[in-house]
Amino acid sequence: MKRTKIWSYAFGVTMVLSLAGCGNSAKKQVNEKVNADSMSVISNQVGLQEDSALSTLVLDGVKATWIRDNASAKLMPPSLFPDAGEDLMKKLSLENGIPSSISTFLIESNGIQILFDTGMGASDSRLLAGLHALGITPADIKYIYLTHFHGDHIGGLMKNDSVVFPHAEIYASKAEYDSWMKMEAEKNGQVVRAMNAYKDRLHLFAFGDTLPGKVVVMEAVGHTPGHTVFQAGKLLIIGDLIHGAALQLEHPEICATYDMDKQEAIKTRKNLLQYARENGLVIAGMHLPVPAFIK
């Protein structure tokens, strides 16, 4: 293992829509607002089908392509947010679930192409089909940056006992790696298998490091012990900072049950959302609703 060395919408954004296996032409959608201080889902600027798989934006020289991994529409169940309560869910019209996704992002920054997370790796996962639609094979991927080690983020690294990305350099938080390696076998089995399979190409970074592509590593602990957010220019890749945007953007004090350290997760969520607002950043999130960009 090798160790390596951080809302307004005032900047220009060029949105290009691509579809993988969608069949019909994209249908027009009305504004899809999220109730939180002028943050809104960027899908209000393009037409997207419910089964859309790809969407690309370019801002300040950084090209970001969202690749949807989940095969069917995804709703986060209200039970995932027990502190919200039934009254709040009804007030926000979320009692039937919160629109979400399992997403990955392919970023081109400073001449470097990087895949952020790898989805579930399920039999119906769309990541590889999405890459194929872009003319990219798994062997073409040279850099993979991981936000954390939950199965819906590292599952795509492996197919059975074989690596999926034979030439990829894997970058992950040292704090995340160390914490998962100390867990009992019934919790960390998938992590251990994946990290061992890529051990000769595994790089462990510290918060504050700058990675290839001038991508800056930001501490985002709480969801997991080494949960990481990445900044590439005006883009902030937030991993699992948010699971239910329609709820948590307005109420960042509410956690999903997946958050390992509730108080740290709340603190991190509030701080990074404020940072994004103050710096005019576009957010890319692995569980944001289609197409998983928020401005």
- End-to-end separation in angstroms reads 36 Å
What characteristic shape results from the CA principal axes? globular
Task: Using the CA coordinates, give the radius of gyration.
Answer: 18 Å
Topology as a string of helices (H) and strands (E)? EEEEEHEEEHEHEEEHHEEEEEHHEE
Largest sheet: 9 strands, mixed
The appropriate CATH architecture is: 4-Layer Sandwich
Keywords: Hydrolase, Metal-binding, Signal, Zinc
GO molecular function: hydrolase activity; metal ion binding
Protein name: MBL fold metallo-hydrolase
Pfam family, one: Lactamase_B
Explain the overall architecture.
Residues 1-20 form the signal peptide. InterPro entries: MBL_superfamily_lactonases (IPR051013), Metallo-B-lactamas (IPR001279), RibonucZ/Hydroxyglut_hydro (IPR036866). With 295 residues, the chain is of the alpha/beta class. The chain has 7 helices and 19 strands. 48% of the residues are buried.
